[in-house]
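To the team - nickel (II) ion complex, inputs and output below.
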Amino acid sequence: MAILPILTEGNPLLREKSVPVKKITKKHLKLIRDMVQTMKDANGVGLAAPQVGVLERIIVIDIGDGPFALINPEIVSMEGSERDVEGCLSVPGLNAYVTRAYRVAVKGLNPEGKPVRYEGEGLLARAFQHEIDHLDGILFIDYLADSNDSEGNKSK
Ligand code: NI
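Output:
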């Protein structure tokens, strides 16, 4: 396993749209292991492949009860809304309030290639929305530009 360098805001790769994984290969499985290691090392709750420079639709999440990976994740339903503090490993040092759906259902493939579906609320729902945004070149700071939501504490 390896700890991968995490790209930071300003790197154009973070603004690209990632492509779906057509066939899961050993290379993808190694990438997932490295992403989990990298997320743990950085004390993150999630990481998306473009953050380590790979423009493929893969995310890993660990909200404290163990890491899991999702390939080609898609949000299939959203409910409610919640405003809470968010940060991003690619935007070090900034935490700010973002309004997100409170509950989401997400489908995708697990690393074995089997279709899986997750339902999450609160932090898990937020992590899914944040990481899937990365696959479309969206950063959480994009939601701050046009609102008063940026008063969140900037220290970490
Ligand atoms: Ni992020």
